[in-house]
Each structure stands twice: as structure tokens, then as C-alpha cells.
Design a protein that fits this description.
342 residues; alpha/beta; Rossmann fold; 7-stranded mixed beta sheet; 10 helices; cytoplasm; ADH-like_N; NAD(P)-bd_dom_sf
Length: 342
Amino acid sequence: MTTDTTMKAIGFTQSLPIEAQDSLFEFEAPYPHPMAHDLIVKVSAISINPVDAKVRTRAAKDKVLETPRIVGYDAVGTVVALGESVEDFSVGDRVYYAGDINRPGSNAEFQAVDSRIVAKTPTRLTYAEAAALPLTALTGWETLFDRLRIDPAAKNKTLLIIGGAGGVGSISIQIAKQLTHLTVIATASRPESEAWVKSMGADYVANHKNLTQSVKELGFEHVDYIFNTADSLGHWDAMVELIAPQGMIASIVEFNGSVNISQLQSKSAGFVWELMFTRSLYKTDDMIQQQIILQKLAKLVDEGRIKTTLTSSLQGFTIDHFKEAHRRIESGKTLGKIAISF
């Protein structure tokens, strides 16, 4: 175990546009010490998610933080120390995880993370390829099976994924096609994003710019399940029209405005939220389910049934690389995932 007392980290103290000089900066942070269930991980690769940019732009809007906040919610690394209550892990294990939004993130040389939300990485992937998976795969898996409560054995059911080419959409298509009998419709509006969702396994592609018409032109009057990974408010009316009687809608994107939930009443349709951080945030009794999901995911990857959604990788722990990754994620045009190895 290292005897260092500090480590390099990248964070922010003010919510600034990414082009601002101090939107992200490098600093010396205290070396983490494990709580009872923690692993201390030497981080080797991370990936960027929309939540990284959201936290950066919202957490310190009208104030200056006394201590820089470290973001980063996907990581792969090597275990260098164990908390006293940790089981099933050893120093030297290569692990992957999505972390806890209430604790310092993965944009650092070392990170403390609860072992119950960590698993050993797929053996066939590089660090960067594995780092692309945890947050999005947990989100997709929880949405399909914990929130929408899809029966893997059910047949003749249809799932519409809005935002199919993003990180969550990309892995959710694969999970649905590998673990259920669902017919999957994914949205895309550019030739490259349409090709991407097809490569992930989507059965049909709809254009989200005219969602209702596009889905119906594919031959579907209604769909049994909708998973919105993009714009909840903008697609609300389309989702209300397209959802089947007794169907279910799930979303990971908060409403920027209000909607009339009563529009779903006549169909006895449901709406449910998914937040990947809920289990760690509230230390739920089933928190270890995230470890179990990541273990199952690793097995599917090593069997060749699930592939990484990594499309772009940067090399080196530098401010320029982290800022570039944030710029790309904020563009809203990324396919798959962006990783940084160091």
C-alpha cells in the first residue's frame, strides 16, 4: 500500500463554462482512507458521462466551494487496500464500478469506493473499454428489470429507447437483445447514429425529430415499454400517445418544466424514474445488487455477448483531456462513450 498522504486530482470550485480557465483544474487532494466496506483503488481509466458535466455546471452556481469537488462516475483500476469488513476482494484485483455521487469521484489517482457496488472487470477488455460500461450498464439493467419490471421470458413485447446512440441507450439495446425477447426500436436522427444503434442490435430505428409518426410508419401503433434517455419533457406527448394500454414508461432525464401525468390515466399506464445512484445514495438493503449486476455483465462480455460502447479514448491525466471530454459530452452528439486512460 502506498504511504503517500496526497494525490493528484481534477475538480472544480465554481460552476463555469468548460472554456473558462478554472472550469476544471488539477490540485493535490488528501489520499483516501477506507471505511469498513471500502476498497482503495488505484485508478487507471475513467469514462465521462452527462452527469459529470451536470454536476460541474450545477453544484457551485452561486458560490465558491471551499474544497474542490472531484467528479467522475466510472472507473477501472487496481485494488491497493481493503476496509476491515471487505470480503471477496484482494489487493491486486482489477475492478470496475460507477461509484457514489456523494463521495469524491474517479478523476483522481486513487479512490475510495464501497465494495458492494464494485465487481472484477471483464477479462477480455482493456482498461478504457471496461471503464465505458459500469454507469450506463447499471442504469440500463436497473431500468429494464427493476423499474420497468420486464419479464425476460415474455414474448411479443416492444421496447422503445429514446436516445439510442448515447451511452445508456447503446448498452441498453444490447442488454435487452441478449437477455429478453423484446423487439427493440431505438431512436437516431443522423446516418452515423442510425448505423451505430443498428450495430448495437436494434431491430428498428425511429427518428426522434418526429417520433410518433416515425414509430407508426415502422408499423407500431403502440409500444409496451418506453425508456427515455434523452428529453423527457420534449417527448412527453409522443410517449403518452405511443405507450400501450397498461404499458410502462421509464426516464433518467428530469423534466425541465411540468407535465400532466393524468394523461396516462385512461391507459392505466405507469411512469417511473431510474437513478443509478439511488442504491448507494440511500444505502438500500439491496445495495449489493449493483455488484451482482456488474458480475453478470462481466460474464456476458467475456462470453462475447455484450461489447464495449467505447468510441473515443484519450491518453493521459491532463486538464486538456478532461476538458475535451466534457466539451464532447456537452455537445449532445457523441456516439457511445468517451474514456481517459492514465
